């Protein structure tokens, strides 16, 4: 599903963010990516959704060589991937329903189908009673659940979550991780969670990748933070 | 191409989205529309004035004639011969013939009741010669044309008001050119201001655009609602200026009776003029809004 071969990323500023990284993630896996700030976690996932291009090496996501995708085709490529951010990134002037529906509207889904799928997805994340609220009327945890709903409503093969619990309290964080685990189990979506949250990684042990100085320092299916 | 077609198919939906966005971005929308209103009002009022000044100066210019008096002694054939020669000169737009009798009648009419009897006695032995009223194609070349006419045989005198007419004509010409430059300059400034306003509204929403891209919206899918919003802002911004012009100019026209001071200073009739001008204002607002958003959003759609 995701395959990195000898990937190096050097920014224009000269910063060497990734250094000869090799990695394979199989379909249906649930993977944590952990590491200190500046270890290259963000660069790693930015390469996956083509926000950045690798300086050298090959990045393959859902069978496509990411660096070969033409700029104009990037939106089409991104429909295969759902992304959730620490700061939610919801469209501020759209309601919960419209935010989630937007991901379907852009791929010309028929209206009836949009209604059906948005409702089903909001139920999955537990927000069916907030359909007509605007983002600023919701709590952080609720906003993050809307963001997750938007990311998965078009059934992407990969879901990438960049510090999804970074702005949330422990109780809410637990809920969010549970939602992500459910998506992984029920829909078979490959889920990648970048996190700092030791508690979460300990509690739900899954494959964990530790990054340090642009390299993968440990990769264990045992899970846990003490690598 | 495919995505463009799908976006055109989605145009009604995009249109609805734009209206909803305008409504939900209330304060931003209002201030942009207000800025466009002020700009269009400015160009509207000033252009209407400038166009009228141009029209009036063109009118005055057209009114300038060379008055050619012929010798008294010559017969009708010789008079016609002079007319022919005048018409052959380069730069002559028209030459109207007045016979000796007509000239005397004009003179008598000018004298009023008192002089009428006195001058009527000249009917049998007319002291005046025939005349031509010559209209120049280019009023700025009045003097040289008058000189050429003077050289034609049997021409007694030529009168065009002398240097003062000449300098008036060149002043009017300056007014017309500078008026045109002024309007063009103003339109450019307006275009700049409107597109800048649109740019600000788009920049304020750059995160929104990046989110849309994140979710997989194609560039055209993002762009079209913004372009429609820009167009609507321009269009809404034109409403008040159009109202002001239609009612304001109509009132001015009625109040002055269509002319200022003398019949030479004629205002443009409101009907086709203001209507056409309103369309131009609305088109200007909408067009600049549309193109301005297209240009401004490009920056945020680069991968």
UniProtKB/TrEMBL annotation, chain A:
Annotated keywords: ATP-binding, Cell cycle, Cell division, Cell membrane, Membrane, Nucleotide-binding
GO cellular component labels: plasma membrane
Gene Ontology terms: biological process: cell division
Membrane topology: Peripheral membrane protein
Domain ABC transporter: 2-227
An example Gene Ontology molecular-function term: transmembrane transporter activity
Subcellular location: Cell membrane
InterPro entries cross-referenced by the UniProt entry: AAA+_ATPase (IPR003593), ABC_transporter-like_ATP-bd (IPR003439), ABC_transporter-like_CS (IPR017871), ABC_transpr_LolD-like (IPR015854), Cell_div_FtsE (IPR005286), P-loop_NTPase (IPR027417)
Subunit structure: Homodimer. Forms a membrane-associated complex with FtsX.
Role according to the record: Part of the ABC transporter FtsEX involved in cellular division.
Family that this chain belongs to: Belongs to the ABC transporter superfamily.
Protein name, entry field: Cell division ATP-binding protein FtsE
Species this protein is from: Faecalibacillus faecis
Automatic annotation (TrEMBL), chain B:
ABC3 transporter permease C-terminal domain sequence ranges: 181-302
Membrane topology: Multi-pass membrane protein
Chief location bin: membrane
Keyword ATP-binding on entry: no
Subcellular location: Cell membrane
GO cellular-component term (any): plasma membrane
Superkingdom per UniProt: Bacteria
Transmembrane segments: 26-51, 181-204, 232-253, 273-297
Keywords: Cell cycle, Cell division, Cell membrane, Membrane, Transmembrane, Transmembrane helix
Occurrences of domain FtsX extracellular (ranges): 64-158
Gene Ontology terms describing biological process: cell division
Family that this chain belongs to: Belongs to the ABC-4 integral membrane protein family. FtsX subfamily.
Function of the molecule: Part of the ABC transporter FtsEX involved in asymmetric cellular division facilitating the initiation of sporulation.
Name this polypeptide is given: Cell division protein FtsX
Species annotation: Faecalibacillus faecis
Origin organism lineage: Bacteria, Bacillati, Bacillota, Erysipelotrichia, Erysipelotrichales
């Amino acid at each position: 599903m995701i395959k990195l071969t000898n990937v190096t990323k050097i920014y224009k500023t000269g910063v060497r963010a990734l250094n000869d990284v090799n990695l394979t993630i199989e379909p249906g896996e649930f993977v944590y990516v952990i590491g200190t700030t500046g270890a290259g976690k963000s660069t790693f996932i930015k390469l996956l959704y083509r926000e950045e291009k690798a300086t050298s090496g090959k990045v393959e996501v859902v069978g496509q060589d990411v660096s070969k995708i033409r700029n104009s085709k990037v939106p089409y490529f991104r429909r295969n991937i759902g992304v959730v951010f620490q700061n939610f990134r919801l469209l501020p002037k759209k309601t919960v329903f419209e935010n989630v529906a937007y991901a379907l509207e852009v791929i010309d889904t028929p209206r009836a189908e949009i209604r059906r799928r948005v409702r089903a997805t909001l139920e999955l994340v537990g927000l069916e009673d907030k359909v007509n609220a605007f983002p600023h009327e919701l709590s952080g945890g609720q906003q993050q659940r809307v963001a997750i709903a938007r990311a998965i409503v078009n059934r992407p093969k990969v879901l990438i979550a960049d510090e999804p619990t970074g702005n949330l309290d422990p109780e809410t964080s637990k809920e969010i991780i549970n939602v992500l685990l459910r998506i992984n189990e029920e829909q078979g979506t490959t889920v990648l969670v970048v996190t700092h949250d030791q508690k979460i990684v300990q509690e739900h042990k899954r494959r964990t990748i530790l990054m340090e100085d642009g390299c993968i320092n440990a990769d264990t299916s045992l899970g846990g933070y003490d690598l | 191409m495919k995505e463009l077609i799908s976006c055109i198919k989605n145009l009604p939906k995009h249109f609805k989205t734009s209206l909803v966005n305008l409504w939900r971005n209330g304060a931003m929308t209002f201030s942009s529309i207000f800025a466009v209103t002020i700009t269009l009002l400015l160009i509207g009022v000033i252009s209407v004035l400038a166009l009228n000044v141009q029209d009036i100066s063109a009118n005055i210019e057209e009114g300038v004639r060379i008055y050619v008096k012929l010798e008294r002694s010559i017969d009708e054939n010789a008079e016609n011969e002079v007319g022919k020669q005048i018409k052959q000169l380069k730069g002559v737009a028209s030459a109207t013939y007045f016979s000796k009798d007509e000239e005397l009648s004009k003179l008598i009419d000018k004298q009023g009741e008192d002089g009428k009897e006195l001058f009527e006695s000249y009917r049998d032995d007319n002291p005046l010669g025939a005349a031509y009223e010559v209209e120049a194609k280019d009023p700025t070349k009045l003097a040289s044309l008058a000189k050429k006419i003077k050289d034609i045989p049997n021409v007694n005198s030529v009168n065009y008001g002398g240097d003062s007419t000449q300098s008036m004509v060149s002043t009017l010409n300056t007014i017309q050119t500078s008026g045109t430059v002024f309007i063009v300059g103003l339109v450019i400034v307006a275009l700049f201001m409107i597109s800048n306003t649109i740019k600000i509204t788009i920049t304020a929403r750059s995160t929104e655009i990046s989110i849309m891209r994140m979710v997989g919206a194609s560039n055209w899918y993002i762009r079209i609602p913004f372009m429609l919003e820009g167009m609507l802002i321009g269009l809404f911004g034109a409403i008040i200026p159009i109202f002001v012009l239609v009612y304001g100019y109509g009132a001015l026209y009625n109040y002055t009776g269509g002319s200022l001071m003398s019949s030479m200073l004629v205002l443009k009739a409101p009907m086709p003029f203001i209507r056409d001008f309103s369309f131009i204002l609305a088109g200007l607002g909408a067009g600049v809004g549309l193109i301005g958003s297209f240009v401004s959003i490009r920056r945020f759609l680069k991968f």
